[in-house]
Write a structure and sequence with these properties.
This protein is mostly helical. About 60% of the residues lie in helices and about 0% in strands. The protein has helices spanning about 1-10, 25-30, 35-50, 55-60, 75-80, 85-95, 95-105, 110-120, 125, 135-145.
Length: about 160
Amino acid sequence: MKKLIAIALLASSSVVMADQDVGCGLGTILFEGKSGVAPKILAATTNGSYGNQTFGITSGTLGCQSDGVVSSRARLSMFMGTNSERLARDMSVGHGESLNVLADLMGVKEQDKSLFFKTAQANFSTIFAADNKTAGQALAALQQVMAKDAVLAAYIAA
């Protein structure tokens, strides 16, 4: 217990950015600065195995932020993959439930949704081009389109 408290205090004394792939927690601290698949797997396993992310999030330590925003490119790709037909239909007309959910997942504010919908509709053939065979490719195309607009560029997941 003393070691855990010492690690938490050490972690809280330095500013640490959590790795996007592995999240925050003790594993992120232990494997900070390491690169490659093995350290990422070990960091993620450590974070998940010791159940310390809740402590880190609550206390703002271990590379966690208590006021951070939950976001995930994988979640967006998964949503696009499982809803591609509905999204294609909604984008082609510029509105619809699945397009609205996608906007919510991307964090698009209510005041910017109309612009998001119009931009998606205007660029439908680019987003769902024949070359874009996977959900990830369609998402990348959507984000490229969004990057060209000053307002929508702010919603592109890093």
